[in-house]
Amino acid sequence: MLLQQDNPGASLIKVENLSKTYSLETGVKGNGSVNSQVLFEVNLTISRGEFVAIMGHSGSGKSTLMNILGCLDTPTHGQYWLDGRNVAFLSDDELALVRNRKIGFVFQGFNLLKRMTALDNVAAPLLYAGVGRSESRKRALQLLSQTGLGNFAAYQPTQLSGGQQQRVAISRALINDPPLILADEPTGNLDTQTSREIMAIFEQLNRERGITVVIVTHEDDIAAFTRRLVRLKDGRVVHDGKVSA
Hints:
Elements: E1 11-25, E2 33-47, E3 51-55, H1 62-69, E4 77-82, E5 85-86, H2 92-101, E6 103-107, H3 118-128, H4 133-146, H5 162-174, E7 180-184, H6 192-209, E8 212-217, H7 220-223, E9 228-233, E10 236-242
Parallel strand pairs: 3-8, 3-9, 6-7, 7-8
Antiparallel strand pairs: 1-2, 1-4, 4-5, 9-10
Helix pairs in contact: 3-4, 3-5, 4-5, 5-6
């Protein structure tokens, strides 16, 4: 195992002095590239079972931070431990396994495969992990039923409403029973009532199953469903505390 268990304990997520800089092409011949820093020495610890909102305006760095937490991007400087292990020591293949087994992703645009049924979309991560087709589909149907879509398993995404598609995406995120769900603007394409229903699902998963849920949002009413608010501004954490009742 290439990872070192450098930071054991209750923390599921721990980042120290995390910074991220992108090199951007200027588009002007002879001028090369310029550096753009989007995160500045971020320190953040999230324990198992927490329900956290990360907020900030466009350009605050919240999506970049989420991508790093999801092992979709790497920091320029600083350290990131996931479940007590230093992510920097993972190979690309090991990172893929972490994303498949440790983290459930939920996106604003649902990211469903349009030619596959809801059932097959949910089952896909299990099939990737080497679980048999029959068992994968059985587990997928159980999860769809739990999110109220048992009767829609044979539908393709284009036949479902936005709220139904997000329920499929949540079911898919849960298929490998991950300890962590990362949701990037999961209600961004939904109306108010449907947004509340989706947030109620996250709230239930956190309360009843102890899943750590981290949500990126720019909406105060969505953050109000969580119990902790981390606010970013210009790449820096400017607030970290309990959500006001």
